[in-house]
Design goal:
This protein is of the alpha+beta class. It has a single domain, classed as lipopolysaccharide transport protein A fold (Sandwich). The chain contains 2 helices and 14 strands. It has helices at about 1-25, 30-40, and strands at about 45-55, 60-75, 80-85, 90-95, 100-105, 105-110, 115-125, 130-140, 145-150, 150-155, 160-165, 165-170, 175-180, 185-190. The protein has a 6-stranded antiparallel beta barrel with strand order 2-3-6-7-5-4. A hairpin with a 5-residue loop joins strand 10 (about 150-155) and strand 11. The protein is elongated.
Length: about 190
């Protein structure tokens, strides 16, 4: 009797194992698809008009205004960001309401660091009609600071020009420095 019980248990275990083995299917493509979905944006918006305000003496004042035809939200990533694949128009206002304008073909805003990476035909225009041209520039929203470590070209309304490899400025463009690759100062205004 013991032999027969053992034989029945062996058959049940064998049938169960064979069933499990053949019921598994190749779902590698499904697993790959999950990875693709996680790399897709969690949201998409069109005709963005974001305003960043600061409150002083119970009155809100616009400090920056970002406009873009399209925004992709990648907040589903571990280092989340928003992407502006069709470019941006960024206005940076000073305390008197004067605005500096920044244009770029492409931008990424990193949510954790509040850093904006501006790329492709980046142009900064001051209220005095001075212009700065670069392939890439960064805007630190926390410190309200613009900088680049790539070639920049500055052209002032009064016909002064300078080209350098390092640019550093406050967002109001009132305190800026342009240096060449050797560290020699080409243009500094304060």
């Amino acid at each position: 009797m013991k032999f027969q019980d053992l034989h029945i248990k062996f058959i049940i275990v064998t049938v169960f194992t064979v069933t499990m083995f053949f019921s598994c299917k190749d779902n590698f493509k499904d697993v790959q698809q999950i990875g693709v979905l996680q790399n897709q944006p969690i949201g998409e918006a069109v005709n963005i008009d974001l305003k960043y305000t600061e409150t002083e003496d119970e009155t809100a004042k616009v400090v920056a205004n970002l406009k873009s035809p399209k925004m992709l939200d990648f907040s589903n990533r571990s280092f989340s960001f928003s992407e502006f694949p069709d470019g941006i128009l960024l206005y940076l206002y000073d305390e008197d309401g004067n605005k500096n304008t920044v244009l770029a073909d492409y931008a990424k805003v990193y949510n954790e660091t509040d850093l904006i990476d501006l790329q492709g035909n980046v142009i900064l225009i001051t209220p005095q009609k001075d212009s700065l041209f670069a392939d890439q520039m960064y805007y630190d929203q926390k410190r309200e600071w613009l900088f680049s470590n790539q070639e920049v070209r500055f052209k002032s309304f009064s016909a002064n020009t300078a080209t350098g490899n390092i640019f550093d400025s406050d967002s109001k463009f009132k305190n800026y420095t342009i240096l060449d690759g050797s560290g020699d100062m080409l243009l500094k205004e304060e």
